[in-house]
Amino acid sequence: MLFAAVCVSAWLWKYSAIWSAVLGGLSYLIPTLLAMLTIIAAKKLPALLPALLPATLLMAEISKILMICLMMLLVYVCYSAVNWFAFLTGLILVSQAGLFTFRKRLLL
Length: 108
Hints:
- 80% of the residues lie in helices and 0% in strands.
- The chain has 6 helices and no strands.
- The longest helix is centred in the first third of the chain and has 27 residues, at 18-44.
- The protein is elongated, with a radius of gyration of 17 Å.
């Protein structure tokens, strides 16, 4: 989906928006991967009680949201030439990748 976001951004806003779309996609992708690794590691710990797994999931999701906001702030501070429409296109397309990938399963 990140490739699709880059293509859409390059088509709509020319080549200057490619890096903005990449940064937008990575702003969602990296925190999601870290949250998934946290949950996988928590499942494999034998000392972790099964009752703590929902709390681990909740904390992973909260930290994912905070990391996404922090990465958006970091892009705002460090990359002054950001195209926000391309950034949000990359962020939204990557965040909805599961919907686009598994659309046949989600249809009623």
